[in-house]
Amino acid sequence: MKDYYKQDKNKKLKGELIKVLIILLVFLILILSYILYQKTQITDTNLSEQKVTIERTLQTVEEVKENDKTVTEMIADINSTVVGISKVKNSGNSIFSSENITNLGLGTGLIVGKDGYILTNAHVSGERYSKCYVTLVDGKTYDGTVVWSNTDIDMSIVKINQKHLPVATLGDSDAIQVGETVYAIGNPIGFEFQRSVTSGIVSAINRTIKFEENEQETYMEDLIQTDATINPGNSGGPLINIDGQVIGINGVKITSAEGISFAIPINTVKSVIASFNTSGKFEEASLGIFAFDKNVLGYIDQNLRFNEGIYVARVNTNSAAESAGIKEGDILLSIDDHKLGRMCDLRCYIYTKKPGDTVVLRVQRNYREIEVEAVLKRK
Question: Which residue has the higher pLDDT, 89 or 261?
Fold first, then answer.
């Protein structure tokens, strides 16, 4: 009897032990499953992060490719509006001939009106009513007539007898910033290098430089300084931003230094261009003064000091300014309530007016401020 109970007790103990072992085994299986699950999750997360990284890298590569494509297309578009200008007509079909190219006086121009208006430097085209020869991108050469020229800012407009021409997009030269990327396009030498493109940055703005020409000192103000390479023949060509907008016209290179070139801000002549495109003419009004901004005074008289306005250095005889009582040494503070800080400010505003228009000038004289009216005359 005792053996029977002993056997039965042993069976129960074995059963309990087996249950405990089963529970432990299940518990271990659950722990192992959780660990494996976590590792799988981590692996999936890493794979997901790697996938995102790869996708972002591919996207960046595509963006770079797209940017390169955009620049290429932009240059192609602007190139169709760049022309060659010469004062001597070549005997061949194009002034971009390798024969006697150095004798042609080759320069560059920019189509700014679909009816044949071309912007360039005055020293490239010559004075008003003079003749020159213009070669378009297709290689054909046309007779050109200078319809407007201003040697003070070295800008002119040439007209050729053609319609439906591609036109350059003009930007805002007042909005440019030092350090932004720019491209210069022109004909630096001739046939072999026509429509050459160089790149650089805007090195400085509102620069003033002094020339000695015909034994007289000449100043050019409000210039854009760039390190984009400009050579003889580039004169009159466009300086463009990364959006393909023209912000200046290349005109000056300092020959005594490398990497220093200058362009005339496009805003200076926007009103002139608009007038020709809308009416086919431009009636240039004149105040009849020669003035400097404070950036130029260091060249003239270091004792002169003023914080705003432009300094009147010369008043032309029988001019609107003389009739209004403007005197040398006056400081013009504003015109029709438009503040003046640069000579470009005055010039750009006058270009929006016509001969016979009346303007109100605020003048500082001997530390007193007065207002005078001036009736603009024809230049």
Answer: 261
